[in-house]
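DM from R.C. (forwarded with permission)

"hey, sorry to bug you on a friday — could you get me a structure for this? deadline for the figure draft is monday and I only need the backbone to look sensible"
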Amino acid sequence: MEKNIALQIVRSAHHTAQAIANSRPDLSEAEQEALYDRVYLGLLEDSVGSMSIGELLDVLAER
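My reply, with the result:
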């Protein structure tokens, strides 16, 4: 996987998870953070397919 694709996956997952968590003002801040974490990790797992999140992080760590 190319680094620019990995960055796009991470950014998209972050923005989507953030939007979903922020759309729930009925939740406490801690509940919103937990929702963000679940959505973000789920989106990353779905996006990397057969790769692991660790492999995605390895690509991002490359120079």
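R.C.: lifesaver. The chain has one domain: 3-61.
me: no worries. The chain has a mean pLDDT of 92.
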